[in-house]
Give the backbone structure.
Amino acid sequence: MSKDKPAIPKGTRDFNPQVVVKRNYIFSTIRKTFEKFGYQPLETPAMENLSVLTGKYGEEGDQLIFKILNSGDYLAKTAVTDFEQGSKSMLRKISEKALRYDLTVPFARFVVMNRNEITFPFKRYQIQPVWRADRPQRGRYREFYQCDADVVGTKSLLCEAEIVLMIDEVLSNLGITDFSIKINHRGILAGIAEAIGQKGREVEICVAIDKLDKIGQEGVNKELSERGVSDDSIAALQPILNLKGDSNTLISSLDNILENSAEGKRGLDEIKEVFKYLSSFQVKNAALNLDIALARGLSYYTGCIFEVKVNNATMGSISGGGRYDNLTGMFGLPDVSGVGFSFGVDRIYDVMEELNLFQASNQTITQLLISNFDKASEEYSLPLLQQFRNAGIATELYPEAAKLKKQMTYADQKKIPFVLLVGSEEMQTGLLQLKNMQTGEQMAVVAEGVIAKLLEI
């Protein structure tokens, strides 16, 4: 028998029941909003064919895909020459599948495979884990859940506006009120590349610009130089990256900068239309900002792009997404426009813990614990247990006779909000003692009164 201590892989975590209950509260809040906006649930396999995933996330993203070795003797189809030619040559021979990197590419694959069975525009949400071979750190894990909402089959910018509304509603309902939704457009970034004399190189420039918050402007300039961007073009980019002001001011400045770029003007016009749609709605808490440094390095975005940051928490982006006109075309279904976004549930959880936003009702499943002092009280309580459960109240009967202190400790540690005390006097009178574990208040009520009180709460 191995003497090694049990452990889990770096970047993964166990979740105890208390944590799972909180996470399920987040999932439930997100799911309700998605369905309120007309999105339908979908699930796809944990693994995809490697060919489905590669080439969709850019060079850096491809390196973070968890590959799965072929079953059996995975070296059977290889030769010494494959090893000599390097990892890329070997990979094709030893791995045909991989764990999904995100939920958007599998969704696009699903749409293509089922295009004759689904109704367009097709709105779906998906809540499942994804895997990335990233370096683990706070807020960045190798296994984590994503909550995606996408719509394909329409180019209407109303969809972009509704993404803003869904983000605003979910975070506001979770108690997160100080957050910014950054928005940009890949057309604007293409126009900027054209304006600085680097037309057609917007993807390379975007990869560098996307790191502005992490490595600063000097770091971005260095990376651009290493990618072969000329000094003159880097110099021309500086005043653009340093543009300040609210969204209207930035739009006005970009009108001049992008006046000779058809792609840039298209992007700017679409941003204006999204803002116009949003003027017809009431946003609760979101601060919507045009951010021309927002690039989101994933290569499949073609239109508006989004990123969400909680301003009063020490956490990076908790949500992001954008429009991807060409993604399904990679799977043989061209000209199907799509737009979507994803919530990072693990990061939202960390933010809510940091800001102490979980309420007592978000931390437990059991609503009522019935005490158990002896055989008589247990027999008396069994019909009550059934009665409360039939009424929809999550109820436990303490499974064995024990002292009151032990049972109260059990309720307290499980954060059960109410305890029903059933002793000899209560059994004689039918008046049961209902104790509120948070306030300490105690009242005498009949069984029907217990049901009414808890359902009211």
